[in-house]
Amino acid sequence: MPVYELSVDGTLVREAEKVVSLAGREFPTLVMRWESRLFDQPWLTTLVLDYVIALPPLIVGQATFNEVRIAAFTGRAGTKFMYFGTEMSASVPRIAPEMENAVGPSELYQEFRLDEQTCPIPYLKLIQVSPRIYGEGLQNYYSPPIKVERYDGVASPELIADFFPKVVANLEPVKGTTLVDPAQGLWTGARFLGATAIAILRQGRVVGLHRRTGKTDKDPIPPEVKRRDPRLDMRTDWVAVDVGAASTAVAVRGERGGAEFVRIGADGPVRVSADNENPSEVAFEALARTTKAWRDRVILPMTRWGDVLVGHAARDMRLRPGEGAHERAAASIPALALLRERTERGEPFRLRGRCDPDTTEALKKPAPPIIDEEGIGAHDPFDPLELYAYYVGLHLNQRSRGISTRYAITMPTGWSPERRASVLIAFRRGLFRSLPAGLCEYHDLEGLKVVDAGPSAIAYAVQAFRMFGIQPRDGGVPFCVIDAGASEAGIAFGLLRSAKAHEAAQGLERMVEYLDPTAIPWLGGERLLHRLAYRVYAASQAEMRERRIPFERPPEESPLGDAEALFAPSPDARANTWALKELLRPLLEGGPSAPVEEQLALVGLDGESSVVPLSIDRGALSGALDGWFRDAIDVFRQHLAGAVAKIGREPDPYQGLRILLAGRLGMNPRFAELLAGVLPAGVQLHRFKEPDKANLGAPTVKMATALGALSLRFDRIGATLRAEKRDAFRYRVGRARHGQLADVLDPSVDYDAWREMGACLKPEIEVLFMAAEDEGEVAADDPRVRRAVCALGRDAVGQRLYIRAVGPARAEVSVGPPGGEPSASAVCWSVDLQSGAAEKTSG
């Protein structure tokens, strides 16, 4: 049983690094250091023991002596010699101390060098001697014999771990047991980065460290590592990514089983459901090193975690209180998805690193949305959103998980097609860069599917129908989604209906048929918070001007006189803006009575930080929010009036309409209260509630959107843009039968679809119709029932009558064979259901 064992476990390695730092060590500490070769690479070995000297074995046939440096803790008392014998005398074998220390601090440690020239004892005989360390004066330090033992730690194949995931993304390394297993192995095309530190344990206790020397970023793959074709580990699941300004949800699901949410940059447990959302944020500790590594290599660039932080880690860095808060905020990019707005406006935007603030990178227009054989170039503009997507890919495509190649990306409802295409390509580029080299070509649309999964409001609606128990009924359920998130309020109207015959043939049972979605672009939580912060800045402008505090002005607000120099875009202005936004966030989320500090440390144009007193008029800010909410609701009512004309049903087009209120801003109680106050009778409002700590299994709105996108891939529900742009048909049309109006057409019918209504028994037929105000039985002679006569001619007698809706108040009547439909040359009459006029149109 060996005395010494080696481990690459992260916890043990961190403990070993603390041990070899010698922090807090006292007598009788002895430190040994020597050069080693592990896996045919140079290493430096350091052992820290108490009254024990451990020496490495000789390499047979290569050396007769191993040079070892020994540092002994002596406090501040000087020493003269390490000697070998029972007492110090002129003839005893000894080693003089070194003039300069290389292992421990010189004021606390005395060092000795064992080599073939200085050591009087042959190396293989040192195990048999009893060394002592002789001190000045009357005191002998380490006067009892020091134990000498053989260091027998052996590097096994299990230590050949791949640390690329750890170094680049703070993910678990690929264990050596996986790499050397013929049934597993390292993916062909993956990057390999071997261990750079190995903990040394003596009888279970950490006592030292092996540390790699030389270059550690370009490792040859050890011969013990087995290769594996990554195609063998490709998964058939879909990954849904819901991109948002404040957060991004990433969920994975296959044909069977539930969805799994993937957290980016998180190192703590999930305490509330919102922890499953990933902040849409990137932060740079060392910008120059990050951009250099990004450009040095296309596939799997070695951007080191710590130099760059993504997701949860980036937000934690920005919000961490204490010294350097402004510098950390200036090095962060929150609301990452909104960078596209800045480039579209041509607004200057500079990136900055925290430890290299003089190194700046100007944000340029991203690579064009083109997928071709040229792929990705080293000189393409640096795109933080592409970098974010790369880290999403690294978290998904781990050796322990397999490889995902199908991604459905949902984006804010109001984004233009051009912006959607740009963001989609950024994600495709970043995800492609996270895959093993050679797995697929960049232009291989089948090998790597990254598709636009549509407006986020529709994906949310799919999941909301399940959560709120909404099922389709005859004619469909009209709905409206108001997705008031961080950057906008997306609005989508539509019908939840049963699948039609051709849709059912594709395996679908339910369909979400929606109108062209729209959005209120200025109604987003972060935008309103920015406007509140700007108004507090304006109310405190005397103090701001005096201290020359830079700030970012929101596009919706008017400039402040001659102070435009303070509003030039810069990392400092961005950091000040976010600091004030975070201070005021409780007023938006908790109401005007929420506690808020009335002073804040901000940084001026001179780089000096100062505490600025703030003029916070809670009444004025609350009034501004109320005004914005009311303006938004007025806009919504205009969209609602136009939409119900297309999806509503007579007699009351609002009856049965379901309003699905979502988004962070949608959870604002005041906004929900004002919205509920203007909704017509018969409209049902479904308001989403944020899950609490006791309900970790419940999704947030963002998570629900990702789940909805996955449902559209795997469940028996589909979504389609409503092709019919005409308003809904608003009449009941048919013939008299047994004294009653027998409907053939009603508001649930599809336009342009011929429907049979019986035999043509005479040249002139009478069509009965009425406004769809009553769904019950109606007598044919009811005053509300009107008539139109269509002279089809004698040739029509004996054929079947057909009728179809062609407009909200227009129908066509014709004849044709049984079980078919009228021919193009058949006689046809058009009936204006509003005026009652009938006219022949063909035949």
Can you offer a commentary on this structure?
It is a single chain. With 843 residues, this protein is of the alpha+beta class. 23% of the residues lie in helices and 27% in strands. It has 17 helices and 43 strands. A seven-stranded antiparallel β-sheet has the order 1-12-13-3-2-5-8. Strands 26, 27, 28, 29, 32, 33 and 34 form a seven-stranded mixed β-sheet that branches. Strand 26 (477-484) and strand 27 (489-498) form a beta hairpin. Helix 8 crosses helix 9 (417-433), helix 10 crosses helix 17 and helix 15 packs across helix 16 (669-678). The longest helix has 30 residues, at 618-647. The radius of gyration is 37 Å and the shape is elongated. The model has no long low-confidence stretch (mean pLDDT 91).
SSE diagram, text form:
Blueprint: E1 4-7, H1 10-20, E2 29-38, E3 41-50, E4 52-55, E5 68-73, E6 79-84, E7 94-95, E8 109-114, E9 131-135, E10 147-150, H2 164-169, H3 176-179, E11 186-187, E12 197-202, E13 205-212, E14 227-228, E15 238-242, E16 247-253, E17 260-261, E18 278-279, E19 282-284, H4 287-296, E20 308-310, H5 312-319, H6 325-330, E21 332-333, H7 339-345, E22 350-352, E23 360-362, H8 384-396, E24 406-411, H9 417-433, E25 449-455, H10 456-467, E26 477-484, E27 489-498, H11 501-504, E28 510-514, E29 518-520, H12 525-539, H13 541-547, H14 571-590, E30 599-603, E31 609-613, H15 618-647, E32 658-662, H16 669-678, E33 684-687, H17 701-714, E34 717-721, E35 731-737, E36 740-745, E37 755-759, E38 764-771, E39 786-791, E40 800-807, E41 810-816, E42 828-832, E43 838-842
Parallel strand pairs: 4-10, 11-14, 15-24, 24-25, 26-32, 28-34, 32-33
Antiparallel strand pairs: 1-12, 2-3, 2-5, 3-13, 5-8, 6-7, 6-9, 12-13, 15-16, 16-17, 16-18, 19-20, 19-21, 22-23, 26-27, 27-28, 27-29, 30-31, 35-36, 35-38, 37-40, 38-39, 40-41, 41-42, 42-43
